[in-house]
């Protein structure tokens, strides 16, 4: 209807505005960070303030990047993607972080999987966010199992961890902006994941048992 159309027009204008603002915030931030880094040797007895300033700048950067992903769906270009290759790349990116946290990543994929149409950088972002959450859910370490299989006209990509789990009444809040249980969390990671997968015509399902672990399943259509 006309009313709905107007609403979505407004939303996309807001999105473009947000993307523009995010971009404009990033440039001065990069320059502040650069100069701050030059000052490190002079921070001396204020090294603790210095460290906080740098980490707060990094935090703003993370929030801004996550907003840019959300605000710019029109910049996506879809290409045929080999999920196994993409996943191996993502695992190699995150492996050092995992090892440091005593986390082992196990990957298995069906052979002969079809390509899926994806904005591959954005999909990468989704997998990284899910893996980061899994690692962060296991402060003393553990295992993550990633599996990729085909189910009819869908690719089923699941990430299972042995982490703290999510209380049942909280499952519905996942993907809401700023919902976080972490001291240094942004509560934007999952929102970005949901949004990107929605843009791919897919879905994310979550199951979880408190104290036992969680499983995030990404469903992607095969064309
Ligand atoms: P952030 O990681 O910055 O907190 P996210 O949007 O990525 O934000 O996640 C939101 C919240 O969802 C987390 O703070 C955490 O409470 C919960 N969560 C997400 N993934 C997991 C997981 N694998 N295990 C346990 N809790 C999770
Ligand atoms: Mg996160």
UniProtKB/TrEMBL annotation:
Keyword tags: ATP-binding, Kinase, Nucleotide-binding, Phosphoprotein, Sporulation, Transferase, Two-component regulatory system
Superkingdom to which the source organism belongs: Bacteria
Keyword check for Cell cycle: no
Domain Histidine kinase: 20-223
Record GO terms (molecular function): ATP binding; phosphorelay sensor kinase activity
GO biological process: one example: sporulation resulting in formation of a cellular spore
Protein name: histidine kinase
């Amino acid at each position: 209807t006309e009313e709905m159309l107007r609403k979505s027009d407004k939303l996309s204008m807001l999105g473009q505005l947000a993307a523009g603002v995010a971009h404009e915030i990033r440039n001065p931030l990069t320059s502040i960070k650069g100069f701050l880094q030059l000052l490190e040797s002079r921070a001396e007895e204020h090294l603790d303030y210095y460290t906080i300033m740098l980490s707060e700048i990094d935090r703003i950067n993370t929030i801004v990047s996550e907003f840019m992903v959300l605000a710019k769906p029109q910049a996506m270009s879809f290409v045929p993607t080999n999920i196994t290759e993409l996943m191996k790349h993502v695992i190699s990116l995150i492996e050092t972080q995992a090892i440091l946290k005593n986390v082992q990543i196990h990957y298995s994929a069906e052979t002969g999987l079809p390509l899926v149409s994806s904005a591959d950088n954005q999909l990468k972002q989704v997998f990284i966010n899910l893996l980061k959450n899994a690692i962060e859910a296991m402060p003393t370490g553990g295992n993550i199992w990633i599996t990729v299989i085909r189910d009819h006209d869908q690719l089923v990509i699941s990430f299972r961890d042995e982490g703290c789990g999510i209380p049942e009444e909280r499952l519905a809040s996942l993907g809401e902006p700023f919902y976080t249980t972490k001291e240094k969390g942004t509560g934007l990671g999952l929102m970005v994941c949901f949004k990107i997968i929605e843009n791919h015509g897919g879905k994310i399902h979550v199951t979880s048992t408190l104290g036992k672990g969680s499983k995030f399943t990404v469903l992607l259509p095969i064309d």
